[in-house]
Design brief:
By secondary structure, the chain is mainly α. It is built from 8 helices and 4 strands, in the order ααααββββαααα. The strands form 2 sheets. It has a two-stranded antiparallel sheet.
Length: 149
């Protein structure tokens, strides 16, 4: 932590990652250290690098199950570990996602992997934009356009 705080750009990215609901300080440090390119990737690239992107197991006419594979194992483990409390307590968007997936018949672990991927996408977006996480959208975004007078 002290080494990260010595560098202003790393400290800013760490604070942005930590602002995301469900990403505690251990997760924030793991993401910053294990994925230094965070904020410069597309959501698909970030998920693939973390090993959270679904890949098919198809060959010819055989259609196998989709599964996550490859990527950075320790980063994937950190995000998966953070997704459990985030999807039950800390992040309203992840709570809703987990509930929706379970209601649709997904298994617990499948839903948690989806929540871990979404958590990574939130982190990537926050770092790319350079603005801290907000649980609620800004009031202007929810008001919509006013009618012309």
């Amino acid at each position: 932590m002290a080494a990260i705080r010595e560098h202003r750009d790393l400290a800013q990215r760490l604070d942005l990652i930590y602002s995301v609901g469900g990403a505690g300080m251990p997760t924030a440090v793991a993401v910053l250290i294990r994925m230094p390119e965070i904020g410069q990737l597309s959501r698909e690239q970030a998920a693939a690098l973390a090993g959270l992107a679904p890949y098919d197991d198809d060959s010819g006419e055989h259609s196998g199950a989709r599964h996550v594979d490859g990527g950075r194992k320790r980063l994937r483990r950190a995000l998966y570990t953070a997704a459990l409390p985030a999807s039950f307590r800390w992040n309203p968007q992840l709570i809703a996602l987990y509930s929706r997936l379970r209601a649709a018949g997904k298994e617990h672990k499948q839903a948690l992997i989806a929540c871990a991927r979404k958590l990574l996408i939130f982190i990537n977006t926050v770092v790319a934009r350079g603005t801290p996480w907000q649980d609620q959208p800004p009031l202007a975004a929810t008001m919509g356009a006013s009618p012309a007078s």
